[in-house]
Amino acid sequence: MTHDHSALLTQLHALKGADSASVFAELIRTGLQALIEAEATDKLGAGRYERTGTRITHRNGHRTKTVATTSGDVEVKIPKLRSGSFFPSLLERRRRIDKALYAVVMEAYVHGVSTRSVDDLVGALGVGSG
C-alpha cells in the first residue's frame, strides 16, 4: 500500500505545474491502465507476482497502444501473456482512425470524389494519407 501511495504522490507532484489538458490526459491514462490491469488479473486468475493454483498462464511484459481520447492521445501498456492472448474489452482492436473518418471516406467514394481530394480532406483532418 505504501508503494501505491508514494507513486500517487510522485504523480501528483509531476502534475501540479502542468496545464489542465495534460492533467486530464494523465488521469484518463491512469484510469485506463488500472482497468486494463484488473481485467488481465481476472483473466489470468492471479495478480502480478502472485502464486495461485488457478493461474492460467504468466505475464510476459507489456506492449504499448496509443488510445485517442477527447483530452488527446494517451499511451497505455497492454500485458502480453506467455501463452494465449489478451486484449482489453474496453478498447477496440486495430482502431487507427475514428469511425466518423471512415464514414467520410466511404461517402466521398460513393459520390465519386477523386482520390487526391479525399487524400487532401484526410490530411486536413490531421491524419496521414493512405
Automatic annotation (TrEMBL):
It comes from the Bacteria. The keyword DNA-binding applies. This is Mutator family transposase. Keywords: DNA recombination, DNA-binding, Transposable element, Transposition. One of its GO terms (molecular function) is transposase activity. One of its GO terms (biological process) is DNA transposition. Required for the transposition of the insertion element. It comes from Rhodococcus rhodochrous. PANTHER family: TRANSPOSASE FOR INSERTION SEQUENCE ELEMENT IS1081. Pfam families: Transposase_mut. Belongs to the transposase mutator family.
